[in-house]
Write the structure tokens for this entry.
Amino acid sequence: MMNRAVVLLSGGLDSATTLAIAREQGYTCHALSVDYGQRHRAELDAAARVAKALGAVEHRTLRIDLGGIGGSALTDSSIAVPESPQIGIPITYVPARNTVMLACALGWAEVLNAPRIFIGVNAVDYSGYPDCRPVFIAAFERVANLATKAAVEGTLKFEIATPLIDLTKAQIIRRGLDLGVDFSLTVSCYQADAQGRACGRCDSCRLRRDGFKAAGVPDATRYFQ
Amino acid sequence: MMNRAVVLLSGGLDSATTLAIAREQGYTCHALSVDYGQRHRAELDAAARVAKALGAVEHRTLRIDLGGIGGSALTDSSIAVPESPQIGIPITYVPARNTVMLACALGWAEVLNAPRIFIGVNAVDYSGYPDCRPVFIAAFERVANLATKAAVEGTLKFEIATPLIDLTKAQIIRRGLDLGVDFSLTVSCYQADAQGRACGRCDSCRLRRDGFKAAGVPDATRYFQ
């Protein structure tokens, strides 16, 4: 069981590369997507395609209605997604999202007897979300090892693996391409349409486009305008 | 906003008393129940009754399908609820349950601008679940203050309040009665029937019954046999 991992898979570029890295490190990968009521539903379809293409042994999608608590442009349709750079932490921040997703991943990892949880957070070319920082990940890892029967009884020691944390977006893209990731399967846009086509204007589109440019490789993203 | 609190409300005896304590401390209480696929659905009905009776300003139920990951007698109908005392952490332990519930409460607390999250965990007369211990709560509180925009920007400092942590079940019952809690509204049993009647044999029933006995007060629990 020690080579099992749960990989959080959003359907975007970062988590696809994370899954490819986990596979390369020899893990049997159980991919987990969280349907938290995000407006960019196309990313959940993308996650299923990516899980299959990159050899995850299974892919599950857990539903949690974070829209029921609101507070973000990604879960509340009455708040518009900004299309210009923002100062500070933007309104696309979803309260406690990574805490909720890691908590779900932890529960599944314990059931699977899997000591590793992979998450594609990045603290270089990112939107400034607090729950993407190494200090948050370290604090959650401590929670994981105190919260669970497996850790307390000593049968598992959980590690939250963040292989992208120090990479630029361009480095992530090159790493993914080296590992055979087909980025045309992925969706990053916060307001992608039902076909997975991107707006080209939101923060996530901007980071992705700049990343392909900096990496010097063609951008396979499909735009709807 | 500083007197707002999110109170996790299961529908059982402990969380009802916790809500009453939060109200007594002057908090405007937003009650949160989590429908995680537990077999004792009657507790969710009980939570709604308790929220109303104890003056919560609103009550929301978030659905998260932890049954999709299994691993517990409470979420997997193929695993029986034990009816005799268990050695070690029992099979009614739900992997990462309190981490998931606190994560959801944290998200809502941030949206509400509420600095306090109340949870009725107890480390005296309890079933030995690791995520009921003070060391876990302290670790989660640290996560809360690193994960969120409000904490990082300095507009909120989250505190996880656990007013029952050091009380015996009898002390909890007496405290609740002092505050006017009607325990006949609450459901503790892990396999309560649709009418909220209790089995009288599971660990949760045993702790509750022993608590009423030790407190020297009548037990209003309805049993189905």
User: Anything to note?
Assistant: Chain B touches chain A through 46 residues (CB under 8 Å). Chain B has a mean pLDDT of 92. The CA atoms of residues 123 and 151 of chain B lie 28 Å apart.
